[in-house]
Specification:
4 strands, about 140 residues, alpha+beta, four-stranded antiparallel beta sheet, Bacterial Protein-export protein SecB, 3 helices
Length: about 140
């Protein structure tokens, strides 16, 4: 099957890491296993069948702790969609599934570098995100 889109560019649009003080850092270091990864995908149309796709990863503690760190990256992709793509469902699958599967290795590497360079080298993202499965669950 040939792809019906092309990624023209991908880049870090915004990156954030906040650890307010050393006490928070020490607390987070001991509790980082409780942190959860959230993903959010937004898109906006540009000209000439191009779309800006913003994939946001947040790694945060859902517990109401005073001491916490916050990590977030917004990764932008500029996608050119083929003229043949007319159906909204096809476009949705391209944005939520196909583009994500292509960009995720770079996004994950960049995000892990942020965490490791922020003093948390032991953090690993154990589960690979299966965008096809997520898309299929969303569709049902």
């Amino acid at each position: 099957m040939t792809e019906n889109f092309k990624i023209l560019a991908q880049f870090v649009k915004d990156i954030s890491c906040e650890t307010p003080d050393i006490q928070s850092y020490i607390f987070v270091k001991e509790n980082i296993s409780k942190y959860h990864l959230n993903i959010d995908i937004k898109s906006k149309p540009l000209k000439n069948k191009m779309i800006e796709v913003n994939t946001t990863l947040k790694f945060e503690d859902k517990e109401p702790n005073e001491k916490k760190s916050y990590f977030e990256i917004i990764y932008a992709s500029i996608v050119k969609v083929d003229e043949e793509v007319k159906d909204k469902k096809d476009l949705e699958k391209i944005i939520l599934c196909d583009v994500q599967n292509k960009i995720y290795p770079n996004l994950e590497k960049t995000f892990l570098n942020l965490l490791h360079n922020s003093g948390f080298p032991e953090v690993k993202l154990d589960k690979k995100i299966d965008f096809t499965q997520l898309y299929n669950q969303r569709s049902n």
